[in-house]
Design goal:
Strand content of chain A: 25-35%
Structural class of chain A: alpha+beta
Radius of gyration of chain B: 23 Å
CATH topology of the largest domain in chain A: Immunoglobulin-like
Mean pLDDT of chain A: 83
Number of helices of chain A: 5
Number of domains of chain B: 2
Number of strands of chain B: 25
Strand order of the largest sheet of chain B: 4-3-2-1-13-14
Radius of gyration of chain A: 17 Å
CATH architecture of the largest domain in chain B: 4-Layer Sandwich
CATH class of the largest domain in chain B: Alpha Beta
Strand order of the largest sheet of chain A: 1-8-7-4-5
Number of helices of chain B: 18
CATH superfamily of the largest domain in chain A: SoxY domain
Number of domains of chain A: 2
Mean pLDDT of chain B: 95
Largest sheet of chain A: 5 strands, mixed
Low-confidence stretches of chain B: none
Oligomer: heterodimer
Chain lengths: 155, 574
């Protein structure tokens, strides 16, 4: 276990992770403060969000890998990761179909960056999770169900 | 104690004559022992596998299920075969000692004939003999070893930790172990097990940076062959059990991590790669079809005592999947013939541990006596006599659970009661005295509190649907591996083939339909939420007072749901 890394982040906790990453020069400040896409984050359905983002009906692609648990350990912080193997990936979004506002996160991928993002999302109930990727001007997606259960009663 | 095979067989014959003469003839017992335990060594790499003993140090009875439904493409497939269906599939003769070990057929009569199963002293004799006849053999423990008995609970697992060291366990993985809390698990790993037993689990990581909590695998050299044992802890520990007990650990199936661990072990030179798994058998079967490079998965959790491995095809070749039952009843023996750097052939047996056929190992027997001595009075307190057979295993209910929900309703003045679908818990024969120890065999957990909750009809339905999906989701990765929550007082219908949210219907309480908006008083136990700590007296105290007052437990009809679309399913029958 890397205690040093943990301690360093605890010390820097006041800055927030994005702030910290910006401080150490991992991402440029303007990326961390990229414009808030109010319309997209306000979308209440998958189709509406796709429309706002100009994604239309994105094709399902095996080159978009969505890493989530099958069953969430804690619906309040569900780890979701997206890896895009598509060349020219410029944008990645994560959507939780049954959340009241279903666009959970969006990432602008600077040119030449490995398209691999990870975050935690809040989920109130079992839902399909979508990864939306824009590469070379076209949209692609991957989908996976994440179960949120009451717990107990096992084993 | 070390002896050759002939000496071992002679000793079995003597033990058999002593132990079984009350119920059967010398010849029959001798034959049974000879057929069961005469397993010539094979190949050059041997792995012994025990799992889910649930802290049962002494021989016990354990009835296998009469209901273990498989749905979707799992229907009619191993491990979802019971009774005669199982015998037929594996070619086991009805009425034989193996038929008693692997099925619930004629359970009471057969249990009287063949006697108790398991017990660490008897298991130790078998392990010693097998290790003596198979040079370099390792003993793998699939977990659920530290929980399930009063003495394990009262010693915070110390009795089982010491017993496993004495037994010669080499490598283990985890499930219920985690319910003693992360600190206790780490304390045992770092102090008691140091240099003796490795805990492996590729799928346990810290919740923050996903750093490994345990070794993902170990490589041991067996007769010049590097053998990797990859660990897979129960993936849904923080969901099925209280998350607050291991707040910094994340689990999950982690298929990609498994592939990486297997590849890393191969790159390090492993010629044999096996997975010691607590996934449950359906999950193991799916994993085996998707991850390449695994020679065998030694599975547990779902307590499926399967006489032969299932051979699963995948993109890289074939993987054997076994499951070794529960409660110390079985020991799996896998012999690999490894040639030119890979597995060329194998032999596998799942040996039942019959206490009357295997004499007790004196060292282990002495250890067990010593560890139990301070608790004997408390353990032996007689609570009541049972008129009927008491058992737990089964998808929907068992007579032990019926007793528990009846007691909860009466003692807590509830309208209905829930009891978790645990698969551990020993069986008692008709006429047996129920002692405090037997009650704790069903209830000994670190979060035993009882609850009484005002619950809406809608919530009751939500709970039943939620648990039904954990059991009957057609994709095994979405299953948790327990059984259906047991209900007292409530009748319902269940269609296991229906989608999530539509399996449960016609919920009735005392002849009246459950109304979604109405509230009901529901008793329960084993709450997983941290807010429910100390919510009420421990379940064993509640049930014990009920039993003391009753004195005689009459045979009750089991409250079972009416099943739909299940007729002809070979996961049901007698």
């Amino acid at each position: 276990m890397n205690h040093q890394r943990r301690d360093a982040l605890k010390a820097g906790g006041g800055l927030g992770v994005l702030g910290l990453l910006a401080t150490v020069g991992l991402i440029r400040p303007e990326t961390a403060h990229a414009a808030w896409n109010e319309q997209a984050f306000g979308a209440k359905s998958l189709d509406a969000a796709f429309e706002v983002l100009g994604a239309g009906k994105p094709a399902v692609s095996d080159d978009v890998v969505l890493n989530t648990p099958d069953i969430a350990e804690n619906g309040a912080v569900v780890p979701v990761g997206v890896v895009s193997k598509l060349p020219g990936t410029e944008y990645v979004a994560i959507m939780i179909e049954k959340n009241p506002y279903m666009l959970a996160a969006s990432f602008t991928i600077p040119e030449g960056t490995q398209a691999e993002v990870q975050t935690r999302v809040k989920m109130g109930q079992t839902s399909d999770v979508y990864a939306l990727v824009k590469a070379d001007g076209k949209f692609y997606m991957a989908k996976k169900e994440v179960k949120v259960t009451l717990g107990g009663c096992g084993g | 104690m070390s002896m050759n095979r002939r000496e071992f067989m002679q000793m079995l014959a003597v033990a058999a004559a002593g132990g079984m003469s009350l119920h059967s003839g010398f010849a029959r017992a001798q034959q049974a022992a000879a057929a069961l335990y005469d397993m010539p060594a094979f190949g050059n790499v041997s792995l012994l596998h025990m799992t889910d003993c649930h802290a049962q140090l002494l021989p016990i009875h354990f009835r296998e299920p009469s209901v273990n439904l498989g749905i979707g493409n799992m229907s009619g497939k191993v491990p979802h075969l019971v009774g005669e269906h199982l015998l037929k599939h594996f070619g086991i003769r009805p009425g034989s000692i193996e038929a008693h070990a692997f099925t619930c057929l004629d359970f009471v009569e057969a249990a009287k004939t063949y006697g108790r199963v398991g017990g660490f002293a008897h298991l130790a004799t078998l392990v010693k003999q097998l290790k003596a006849s198979r040079s370099g053999a390792l003993l793998l423990d699939g977990g659920d070893t530290w929980q399930g008995s009063a003495t394990a609970l009262w010693t915070k697992a110390q009795d089982m930790v010491d017993a496993c060291k004495l037994l010669g366990v080499d490598v283990m993985t985890l499930h219920w172990e985690s319910t003693y809390g992360a600190e206790r698990v780490k304390e045992i790993e770092e102090k008691d097990f140091a240099g003796r037993i490795d805990i492996v689990a590729q799928n346990v990581k810290t919740t923050d940076f996903e750093d490994p909590v345990f070794k993902p695998y170990v490589i041991r050299n067996i007769n010049g062959v590097p053998v990797a044992i990859v660990g897979q802890a129960f993936p849904y520990t923080p969901i099925a059990n209280p998350r607050w007990m291991t707040p910094d650990w994340s689990f999950g199936i982690q298929e990609q991590g498994m592939q990486e661990a297997v590849d890393a072990a191969r790159a390090e030179g492993a010629q044999v790669v096996v997975v010691l798994s607590h996934n449950g058998m359906d999950v193991d079967l799916k994993l085996a079809s998707r991850v390449t490079g695994i020679d065998a998965i030694f599975g547990g959790h779902t307590h499926d005592g399967m006489p032969a491995p299932t051979v699963v095809d995948n993109a890289g070749g074939k993987t054997l999947v076994t499951n070794a039952g529960s409660n110390g009843k079985f020991l799996g023996v896998m012999d690999f013939d490894v040639r030119d750097g890979k597995v060329a052939d194998f032999r596998y047996r799942l040996l039942p541990v019959f206490a009357n056929l295997l004499p007790a190992d004196p060292d282990m027997a002495a250890f067990i006596d010593k560890v139990r001595a301070p608790f004997l009075e408390k353990l032996g307190e007689p609570l009541a006599v049972t008129e009927g057979l008491l058992y737990r295993r089964g998808n929907f209910n068992g007579s032990w659970d019926q007793l528990i929900v009846d007691a909860l309703i009466a003692e807590k003045d509830a309208e209905l009661a829930f009891s978790p679908g645990f698969r551990w818990g020993t069986s008692l024969l008709p006429g047996d005295t129920i002692t405090m120890e037997h009650l704790l065999d069903q209830t000994a957990i670190t979060y035993p509190w009882t609850t009484l909750t005002e619950m809406s009809g809608e919530m009751i339905k939500t709970i039943l649907e939620d648990v039904a999906d954990n059991l009957f989701n057609p994709d095994p990765y979405y299953q948790q591996g327990g059984d259906m929550v047991r209900v007292g007082g409530l009748q319902y219908t269940c269609d296991p083939t229906a989608p999530m949210g539509r399996r449960i219907d016609d919920m009735m309480l005392k002849g009246r339909r459950i109304e979604p908006g109405k509230t009901y008083k529901v008793a329960g136990w084993a709450p997983v939420a941290e807010e429910a700590r100390d919510s009420g007296p421990a379940v064993w105290d509640v049930v014990a007072s009920h039993l003391r007052a009753q004195k005689l437990v009459t045979q009750q009809a089991l409250n079972l749901p009416e099943l739909k679309n299940m007729s002809g399913n070979p996961g049901m029958g007698f």
